[in-house]
Design goal:
single chain, alpha+beta, 2 helices, globular
Amino acid sequence: MSNTLTYATISIDDLNKIDFSQIGEDSADTIRKSLDLTQFLIKWSSEPTFIEDELVIPIGVYNHANILTLMASAEWSEPMP
């Protein structure tokens, strides 16, 4: 079965606008943040109202394959020793 979730990177400045009941993360403590702490990642199966209403504008929106590539990048992952 393929992953049909949608992923988005969001500015850390919008963290307080996230309704965690609408996404796959539980709280600000469980989200994945970029290494420089300027962005975070959310995922959903149904588009959250805060994105539909443009209260939060994603930096980028991704499918599963694309988000795996992004998460492996230097912005999101420490280099392997």
